[in-house]
Design a protein that fits this description.
With about 260 residues, the chain is an alpha/beta fold. About 40% of the residues lie in helices and about 15% in strands. The chain has a single domain, classed as TIM Barrel (Alpha-Beta Barrel). The termini are close together.
Length: about 260
Amino acid sequence: MSSTTLAVDINSDMGERAESLWDSSEEQLMRFVTSANIACGGHAGDPTSMQATVWLAKKYGVCVGAHPSFPDQKNFGRIQMQLSRDEIRKTVHNQIEALGEVCSQLRCQLTHVKPHGALYNVAVKNLEIAAAIAEGTKLWSSEVILVGLAGSEMIEVWKDAGFRVAEEAFVDRAYEADGTLRSRDHDDALLTDAEKATQRTIELIKTGTVAAIDGTILRLHPTTLCIHSDTPGSYLLARTLREGLRKAGVDVKPLITLT
């Protein structure tokens, strides 16, 4: 992003819960994001949910991305599995391919890939796993954007593999002093106050800094901001954020236009 014109993408992890598709809450949220990371069979998702979520993304002009994870629907992909580099490569490829087939059927471009849950968090520091994610993605396409934690080493691994990357910050999550996300095991890991979360995010975009849970000041320069669809009040948070960014003079643009 340039220093004169601030712009950022807003992404959300979607297609993870059937009830959010059928009760319209997923559609409400889709109206306020610019990129959707769609569960593609690892931690959640099946052909029906993928089709429904891609269709919604098309309806609202939202970029479609794959959201691969450890293949563990029982634990929602939030527990690390002891898989080999080759096994991770294969499952990432297979999950992206599954969503890619749906996108082809609906004539929709798959623009990006963002790992989910434990796979994402482990890859932040385990560079072999970060490389396996890149390898699995490249088996499908080297033209997509890889989305990872802002300021982390996974970003450099993916750049070295030849990918365009998007550095991600989180609107609804607390940070540890080392820049990683605070574990959901802690009660203060999730931020649900829409006004406070929005103000913190605008400060981050304006100054490139955000406070960790212990007060440590982190320096981040995100391209994209994440709001989890399963965060309580996610739709209201996204709406509040969009309005706050508008008032602050920050443009909200699709991810594919910013990388």
